[in-house]
């Protein structure tokens, strides 16, 4: 696995730059989590590109706006934090519209983060001729320092594979971050598991660094009700001492994890859910291939 790369990338750019279309083109139809989903996690996963050599997790942020309120300021901070944390930021600029102040504003914000892995993507290349594209590439190159500038057309499928190669190149060496295989056909189960894992790690991250995995065993509408979904999930830890941490005194922590993640899952799925959460010790699951497979790794 040592040559495997995995990490997060974020497409940024003014509205209509073609970010969603590009995300879908990269991900394929397999696991595109649609844009109608609300912002539920700190990093809203929009899609995951699974390749033999890499796993690229595309995350989403709201746009940056001139902050008029404290909340607006906080939101902007959150956006910047996400940009700072992801492995690659890619600024998208459409080929068919002049580079403008909106692009410059975002480019300057990114420059302020002093990141190495910043790419520029000129989107919608099918809409312009070669000469116009060349001019646009030049104009974009003047927006800032970019590791690569890539022209693509998500509609025509032009250079999308090349872009995937380049993005993968800028990810750190790492095992896959999300389960591959059948589970990718059920993005919602993966996301639900991720929300629970996030909630379970809240406040105890240092005590349970990598020892926590969450598996959603079942997600089914309650019989006779179309407004309620039963979700059965298990939090796996490696040792009984960790189980005690996750449960908390008198089960207080796990109750809190349940209610926090339930709210987020309901926002994600747009339906009420009943969350049945169990904690199990799967001894040394990280070193046991059978357990790993069961846990989706
Ligand atoms: N011709 C052409 N049109 C494209 C291409 N990519 C996106 N579009 C169109 O451009 C418009 C905006 O695309 P989106 O992918 O929604 O853009 P976005 O950046 O996600 O927009 P926001 O969600 O508003 O930030 C849509 O009408 C797309 O169909 C492309 O490669 N070629």
From TrEMBL:
A GO BP entry: ribosomal small subunit assembly
One GO term describing the cellular component: cytosol
Pfam families: KH_2 (PF07650), MMR_HSR1 (PF01926)
Subcellular location: Cytoplasm; Cell membrane
Domain Era-type G: 5-173
UniProt topology in membrane: Peripheral membrane protein
Region span, G3: 60-63
Binding-site residues for GTP, renumbered to this chain: 13-20, 60-64, 123-126
Location, primary (coarse class): cytoplasm
InterPro entries: G_ERA_dom, GTP-bd, GTPase_Era-like, KH_dom-like_a/b, KH_dom_type_2, KH_sf_prok-type, P-loop_NTPase, Small_GTP-bd
Domain named KH type-2: residues: 204-283
Chain residue ranges for the region called G2: 39-43
Region (G4): 123-126
Purpose: An essential GTPase that binds both GDP and GTP, with rapid nucleotide exchange. Plays a role in 16S rRNA processing and 30S ribosomal subunit biogenesis and possibly also in cell cycle regulation and energy metabolism.
Family: Belongs to the TRAFAC class TrmE-Era-EngA-EngB-Septin-like GTPase superfamily. Era GTPase family.
HAMAP family: GTPase_Era
Record protein name field: GTPase Era
Gene this chain is encoded by: era
């Amino acid at each position: 696995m040592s040559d495997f790369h995995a990490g997060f990338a974020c497409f940024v750019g003014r509205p209509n730059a073609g970010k969603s279309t590009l995300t879908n083109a990269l991900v394929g139809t397999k696991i595109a989590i649609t844009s109608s989903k609300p912002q539920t996690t700190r990093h809203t996963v929009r899609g995951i590109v699974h390749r033999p050599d890499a796993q690229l997790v595309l995350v989403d942020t709201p746009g940056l706006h001139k902050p008029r309120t404290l909340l607006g300021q906080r939101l902007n901070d959150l956006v910047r934090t996400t940009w700072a944390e992801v492995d690659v930021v890619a600024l998208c600029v459409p080929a068919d519209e002049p580079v403008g102040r909106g692009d410059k504003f975002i480019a300057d914000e990114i420059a302020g983060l002093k990141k190495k892995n910043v790419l520029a993507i000129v989107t919608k290349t099918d809409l312009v001729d070669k000469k116009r594209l060349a001019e646009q590439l030049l104009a974009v190159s003047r927006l800032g320092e970019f590791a690569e500038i890539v022209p693509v057309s998500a509609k025509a499928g032009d250079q999308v594979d090349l872009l995937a190669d380049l993005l993968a190149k800028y990810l750190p060496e790492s095992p896959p971050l999300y389960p591959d295989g059948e589970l990718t056909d059920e993005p919602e189960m993966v996301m639900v598991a991720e929300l629970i894992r996030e909630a379970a790690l809240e406040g105890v991250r240092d005590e349970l660094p990598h020892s926590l995995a969450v598996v959603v065993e079942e997600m089914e509408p309650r019989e006779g009700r179309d407004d309620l979904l039963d979700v059965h999930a298990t939090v796996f830890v490696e040792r009984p001492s960790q189980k005690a941490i996750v449960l908390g005194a008198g089960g207080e922590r796990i109750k809190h994890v349940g209610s926090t993640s339930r709210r987020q899952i309901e926002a994600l799925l747009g339906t009420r859910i009943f969350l049945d959460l169990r904690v199990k010790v799967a001894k040394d699951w990280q070193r046991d291939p059978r357990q790993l497979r069961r846990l989706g790794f």
